[in-house]
Amino acid sequence: MLPRPHPQRGALFGLDARLALVVFGVVVLIAGYTAFGRLVSAKQVALVGELQGLEQALAHYQADLGTFFPFTLNKGIDDPESAEDLAALWDVSRVAPGFQARWNGPYVARETLQSRQYGRYGLFYAQANREPCTETTDCLLWLTLSRVPAAEWAEVNRLLDEAGGKYPEKADEVTLQGRVQADGTGAERTLLLQLPGRESR
């Protein structure tokens, strides 16, 4: 006659298996949160890279053409419409005829105003406080990107304006000061990035 198995051994094995499954589940959960955190960071890093790429493209364009960006465009200097002006980075027909010989573009790999992740890019020209430019004030280029989630905007601001968090801005002024600003304070906002411009005449 074979000895009967002890019922306790089966119960203990079942308990061990359940504990192992719980531990495995916790490890998977932690790994999932870590991977998700890296994914969010990767999206934020990609956005910063996209912004810096456009900033460099505009700097190269202005260096090649030898003057402030809006002065080179194939439109009246008093024309307030600037939403499509970035297209001069890849479309020479948007450059004034007197500057076309110096144009060495395209200056960007992607010939679109659409961001890879969010809304559309645009430009406008204003002082550091976003007031209109005048003959006696410095005038800056402002790169805009619509529909940026608040968390991504905050990370771009932290990286570019606050030196990675070393110099935090005041909470009530964070969207209105520094190189990175915002229109709106909701879940989505328009990101504004201040770029070098021209000094007053």
Which terms summarize this structure?
globular; alpha+beta; 201 residues; 2 helices; 4-stranded antiparallel beta sheet
Describe the model.
The protein is built from two helices and four strands; from the N terminus they run αββαββ. The chain has a four-stranded antiparallel beta sheet. Strand 3 and strand 4 form a beta hairpin. Helix 1 packs across helix 2. The longest helix has 59 residues. The termini are far apart. About 5% of the residues have low confidence.
Task: Write a concise synopsis of the structure shown.
The protein contains two helices and four strands, in the order αββαββ. It has helices at 7-65, 150-160; strands spanning 121-126, 139-149, 180-183, 188-198.
Strand content: 15-25%
Helical/strand content category: alpha+beta
Number of helices: 2
Largest sheet: 4 strands, antiparallel
Unreliable stretches covering 5 or more consecutive residues: 31-40
Please provide the count of β strands. Answer: 4
How much is the average pLDDT?
79
Secondary-structure element string: HEEHEE
- Give the CA-based shape: globular
Q: What is the subunit arrangement here?
A: single chain
What is the fold's blueprint, element by element?
Blueprint: H1 7-65, E1 121-126, E2 139-149, H2 150-160, E3 180-183, E4 188-198
Helix pairs in contact: 1-2
